[in-house]
Amino acid sequence: MQPDRPLAIEAQGVGKRHGRQWVLRHLDLDISAGSSMVLLGANGSGKSSLLRILCGFDAPSEGAVAWHRGDHALTRQHVPGHMAYCAPDQSLILDLTVREHIEAHRRFRASLPDMDTDGVLRLALLEGHPDSRVRDLSSGMRQRLSLSLAFTTASAALFLDEPVSHLDRDGRAWYANLLAEWRRGRTLVVASNHNPEEHPEDAERFEIGN
Questions:
Q1: Helix (H/G/I), strand (E/B), else coil: 97
Q2: Is residue 106 included in any domain, yes or no?
Q3: What is the pLDDT of residues 120-165, one digit of tens each?
Q4: I need a surface site. Which of 45, 52, 104, 123 has the fewest CB within 10 A?
Q5: Owning domain of residue 173
């Protein structure tokens, strides 16, 4: 499915403070609908904080963010329903089986029309583990599950935080194919620790200093 209205984002003067410490200050960026952007920074630079602001999870401490799908403006509270997100520390429900987790996700978020539970299992290379508890999967398997759920969710944008974390060489090749085959025209924002395997070569680069 090609999204008819991928997400556009405009941030002006954005800053984020944790307690008394500012991790971001005075940031301006414009992400056009259907484009790709990589937020580049070392550990502790604030790129994950910026990603969470851009996808509507967290409010900025200063500045403003605006989201649009076509001519329709979205409030921050509604943005999460229009996007999919994946991060290394993303919480999975460890006591569920893989199949149960996929089915639970699909009850809360619509999937792409050509995707079902078995399709997600195959995409994540977990067709041999449908009844395994999520807690018993390796970290790489859990990352493939999280990424597969994000990419197969019907959405206007994808937000990925260091997506090749926990993936070995074969897993990184799998991710490259996922990015090529399953992005499907959606706006893509990736937070990366300067790892070129995590984003398209033509992604716009936004450097975040410490």
A1: strand
A2: yes
A3: 999 999 999 999 999 999 999 999 999 999 999 999 999 999 999 9
A4: 104
A5: 7-204
What is the C-alpha separation between 49 and 4, in angstroms, rounded?
28
CATH number at residue 25: 3.40.50.300
Tokens 């509270």 label which residue? 77
Q: Which residues contact 154 (CB under 8 A, 6 or more apart)?
A: 1, 109, 110, 111, 112, 113
Q: In what order do the strands lie in the sheet with 204-207?
A: 83-86, 157-161, 187-192, 36-40, 204-207
Q: For residue 188, with 0-12 CB atoms within 10 Å meaning exposed, 13-18 middle and 19 or more buried, which class applies?
A: buried
**Which secondary-structure segment (H or E) carries 9?**
strand 7-18
Radius of gyration of the chain (CA): 17
Residue 1 pLDDT? 40
Quote the pTM value.
Answer: 0.95
